[in-house]
Amino acid sequence: MSETQLNHPALVLYRISIHGRVQGVFFRASARQQAQALGITGIIRNEADGSVYAEAEGKEEAVQQFIQWCRHGPEGAVVTSITAEKSAPKGYTAFEVIRGLQ
């Protein structure tokens, strides 16, 4: 393994679906702040079914911390279920809130 690989662990991406009372409680904005604090890139958006969908890309440990945060979300959120599926990294450069319903 090269020195570069040792100093920069591979990035991972998780596709995360969060269900419950997660819209209208600043979930997306709070998640963006959390992601930025953890050095994570990706997207987050509201879904038409009332859930929130995110793609979080970064170091495994940081993404796992983000997923743990998503299990409760910000004050006012009531998370009833969450799924997180590992996927191929996409090379995001920032963490963006996607406006509108998808």
Q: Span from first to last CA? A: 41 Å
Measured as a percent range, the helix fraction is 25-40%
Largest beta sheet, briefly? 5 strands, mixed
Average pLDDT taken over every residue: 91
Classify the fold: give the CATH topology: Alpha-Beta Plaits
General form:
globular
List how many beta strands DSSP finds: 5
Number of helices: 3
* Rg: 14 Å
Task: Assign the CATH architecture.
Answer: 2-Layer Sandwich
Beta content comes to 35-45%
What are the segments in which pLDDT stays under 50 over at least 5 consecutive residues?
1-8
The neighbouring-strand order within the major sheet is 4-1-3-2-5
Q: What is the count of structural domains?
A: 1
CATH hierarchy class name: Alpha Beta
Q: Helix- and strand-based class?
A: alpha+beta
Question: Which properties best describe this structure?
Answer:
alpha+beta, 5 strands, Alpha-Beta Plaits, 102 residues, 27% helix
Description:
This protein is α+β, with helices and mostly antiparallel strands and 102 residues long. The chain has a single domain (3-89), classed as Alpha-Beta Plaits, CATH 3.30.70. Helices cover 27% and strands 39% of the residues. It is built from three helices and five strands. The chain has helices spanning 3-7, 27-38, 60-70; strands at residues 12-21, 41-46, 52-58, 78-87, 95-101. Helix 2 runs antiparallel to helix 3 (60-70). The radius of gyration is 14 Å and the shape is globular.
